[in-house]
Specification:
CATH superfamily of the largest domain: Metallo-dependent phosphatases
Largest sheet: 6 strands, mixed
Radius of gyration: 24 Å
CATH class of the largest domain: Alpha Beta
Strand order of the largest sheet: 4-3-2-1-13-14
Structural class: alpha/beta
Strand content: 15-25%
Distance between the termini: 58 Å
Shape: globular
CATH topology of the largest domain: Purple Acid Phosphatase, chain A, domain 2
Number of strands: 25
Length: 552
């Protein structure tokens, strides 16, 4: 079965030009019609889902998974797994937290690639909302960026597939921001595809970007919607859910599955037979109370095939067989490779510019205490930009551990000409979200409370201070004033401190005590501060350990 082939005319011309210069790999294929014979009414229907999640703009193979992933290899794997009755689906986070090749153009390249792959449906994930609701709607409908304008490729055409958001509404009106579901007839049966993001999306992204949106309970939304879908003729319901779990086995295993997905699946037993999940970046195939739940890792390194056998007469699923397939470099799709090459041609001069040097690897991985050397460097950059009295007079800086996405590697790689060089692209890979940084005044007691709160999920990375957190203590007692030293002196709960934070840590939705912050002074975008730090401080070495201590 051929996939849809859709490339906007401006992009097609650009791809052709790059290919003609040796930068691409072929030209778009013509549309290939589906070959459907009339279904046998007595035989069960066979529907195959090809699913992935958390692609995060990984157009080229991610460094975290050597030999796996890459958009052209993903496309080839999907094509090899297609049948005449296939839907290609995603459980959200196609975009956001993306490498520079996609992010420099506000993830338009990823949408163009997904159009070329022939993605049929995707759920909205929390990272689809990183730049706000209006930008998500631009991803769907197209148009040039309201600030940066059109990319060198031309006017962005938007997604040729629907983003589905059944539990996401505009608070003022109760209206959905996007459709919640789609009905598709395939092999003589009607499949309902429902998409949802996690109810906790507001806490997973910058709430300042989405003040107008509310996110409903996943189980309640689905159980309310199911009768409507059945009334509209759905024979089977598939849920694309951007919420996840983790397990201790291999990609096709289900060992000690834990996470919010488990309770959701239990609540939807008998309502949906299949949940394609995401968010946790795990890979698994599980049965939870008769519901098949799957996940395909992240960044396009797996594709899940889910084969549904459906009773034509009475509706409902007779059998489900699911498997995760590695996306290797054994085959490559020429059309998708050409799209990626076209964007790479434009981004290369920015990506490959050297911004500084390092003396050794500065890893993102955390110690047992939760201290990341790369996180410390980012916090140092934030403090260096704001410590001067004439700027913001910051005493310390706080950085969320989850915002550190890669390591600084000393060995020469990519376009680097010598060991130790740090390129703009490498710095971007470490810190890809483009968060705003500001300095605020915060009471010592509120500083302690913020450190205590974050220690449960990922200790805050710090500069200008050290602290200890107590792993076995109850919330509110994990960090005390005696555990925090600012400039080598124990914090005074009654005193005021100038604290530099990024927009995630400084968001009161994520850190409630930040509602008490005063005297904000904007410092700019985090990556720009990091770039300035490397320019001023190179060569940068791994920071000495000991800023964060974990006590029993």
């Amino acid at each position: 079965m051929g996939r849809r082939r859709y490339i906007p005319s401006g992009l097609a011309a650009f791809v052709a030009a790059v290919a003609a210069c040796g930068g691409g790999a072929g030209t778009p294929d013509a549309d290939v019609p589906d070959a459907h014979a009339a279904p046998d009414a007595a035989a069960p229907a066979a529907v195959r889902l090809l699913a992935f999640n958390d692609f995060h703009g990984a157009l080229t193979p991610p460094t975290q998974s050597p030999g796996l992933g890459g958009a052209a290899h993903l496309a080839a794997t999907i094509d090899a797994l297609r049948t005449d009755h296939t839907l290609v689906v995603s459980a959200g986070d196609l975009i956001g937290g993306s490498p520079l090749e996609s992010a420099l153009f506000h993830d338009e390249p990823t949408i163009d690639v997904m159009n070329a792959i022939g993605l049929d449906y995707t759920a909205v994930g929390n990272h689809e909302l990183d730049e706000g609701a209006a930008e998500l709607l631009r991803m769907q409908h197209g148009g040039c960026h309201p600030v940066d304008g059109c990319s060198p490729i031309g006017t962005f055409g938007g997604a040729d597939f629907p983003f589905l958001a059944a539990n996401t509404e505009i608070e003022a009106t109760g209206a959905p921001i996007l459709p919640g579901y789609a009905l598709r007839e395939i092999d003589g049966v009607t499949v309902a595809i429902v998409g949802m993001t996690l109810e906790a999306t507001r806490g997973e992204t910058l709430s300042e970007a989405i003040p107008e949106l509310t996110f409903g309970d996943e189980v309640e939304t689905m159980t309310t919607l199911a009768p409507q879908l059945e009334a509209e003729g759905a024979d089977v319901i598939v849920l694309l859910l951007h919420e996840g779990a983790t397990q201790a086995g291999g990609a096709d295993a289900c060992v000690n599955l834990v996470g919010p997905l488990v309770g959701i699946a239990e609540g939807l037993a008998g309502v949906v037979p299949v949940i394609v999940s995401g968010h946790s970046h795990a890979a698994f195939v599980c049965d939870v109370d008769g519901v098949t739940v799957t996940a395909a890792g992240a960044r396009g390194i797996f594709v899940t095939s889910i084969d549904l056998v459906i009773d034509r007469a009475g509706g409902g699923v007779v059998d489900v067989v699911a498997d995760n397939h590695e996306v290797t470099d054994a085959a490559s799709d020429a059309e998708v490779a050409a799209v990626v090459a076209a964007y790479d041609e434009v981004v290369a001069p920015v990506r490959d510019a050297v911004i500084g040097t390092i003396t050794a690897d500065i890893p993102s991985a955390s110690s047992v205490a939760g201290e990341s050397p790369a996180g410390s460097v980012v916090a140092d950059a934030m403090l260096a930009a704001t410590a001067a009295p004439a700027v913001a007079a910051a005493d310390l800086a706080l950085m969320n551990r989850g915002g550190i996405r890669a390591s600084f590697l000393h060995a020469r790689g990519g376009a680097e000409t010598a060991d130790g060089q740090v390129t703009y692209g490498e710095a971007f890979a470490v810190q890809p979200f483009g968060n705003q940084v500001r300095t605020v005044t915060l009471a010592g007691a509120d500083l302690v409370a913020a450190l205590d709160q974050w220690s449960a999920s990922g200790p805050l990375q710090v500069a200008g201070m050290t602290y200890t957190w107590h792993a076995s203590a109850a919330p509110g007692a994990r960090v005390t004033a005696a555990d925090v030293l600012v400039g080598g002196v124990a914090v005074d709960p009654e005193a005021s401190y100038r604290v530099t934070v990024n927009s995630i840590v400084g968001d009161p939705w994520n850190t409630p005590v930040m509602a008490n912050a005063t005297e904000p002074v904007a410092a700019g975008v985090d990556l720009a501060l990091l770039e300035a730090y490397f320019a001023a401080a190179s060569p940068v070495g791994p920071p000495p350990a000991g800023r964060i201590t974990r006590a029993p």
